[in-house]
């Protein structure tokens, strides 16, 4: 199977980014969202924080995130 498929990078703060990708792990295609940070030596390294699950759960996850976005907007948390 092919290696990681990069999907998006989201800036979290001045030193961290969230990388979203589709990966292959233990024989399964997985969704992966992992925090990367800038180390003191300037290199980019993966942190412990992240989320990974098989892609069969991706649609339900996307629906949940969409619901959270709508709720955040309706409560005035976002413009």
From TrEMBL:
SUPFAM superfamilies, per this entry? ssDNA-binding transcriptional regulator domain
Which InterPro entries does this entry report, sorted A to Z? PC4_C, ssDNA-bd_transcriptional_reg
All residue ranges annotated as the Transcriptional coactivator p15 (PC4) C-terminal domain in the record: 15-63
Q: Name one GO biological process term.
A: regulation of DNA-templated transcription
Q: Which GO terms describe its molecular function?
A: DNA binding
Q: Name one Pfam family in it.
A: PC4
| Name assigned to this protein | Transcriptional coactivator p15 (PC4) C-terminal domain-containing protein
Q: From which organism does this entry originate?
A: Mesorhizobium temperatum
- Give the classification, highest ranks: Bacteria, Pseudomonadati, Pseudomonadota, Alphaproteobacteria, Hyphomicrobiales
């Amino acid at each position: 199977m092919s290696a990681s498929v990069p999907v998006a990078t989201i800036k979290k703060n001045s030193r961290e980014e969230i990388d979203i990708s589709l990966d292959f792990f233990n024989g399964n295609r997985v969704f992966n969202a992992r925090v990367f940070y800038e180390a003191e030596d300037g290199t980019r390294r993966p942190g412990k924080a992240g989320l990974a699950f098989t892609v069969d759960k991706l649609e339900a996850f996307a629906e949940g995130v969409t619901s959270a976005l709508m709720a955040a907007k309706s409560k005035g948390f976002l413009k």
